[in-house]
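Entry type: protein chain
Record version: 2
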Amino acid sequence: MYLYKESCLFLNVKNQVLHKQTIFVGSLNASIVHPREIFREAVKRSAAAIICSHNHPSGVPTPSPEDIDVTNRLYEAGQIIGVDLLDHVIIGDHQFISMKEKGYF
């Protein structure tokens, strides 16, 4: 059984990885983690930017309305506190979608 998993890379000003962490692990139909959980860790690590990713247990990486909403909230929150969201990647079965590349933010 595949579980939903939200992970982040926390980057310095040169986009080098300072830290990587799984933020949330849930069930097959888990809700998406709240941005405060991600930015709490970003501030703690003095990160300049983040890259977030999560999997879709269904294997289809097409963004859901919830994915689009949380990506926009992550982007906006990051702009306010000065931590750039560089990408939010959705991983499926042997494929992925970059929310940045697709123009979602």
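Comment: The longest strand covers residues 17-25.
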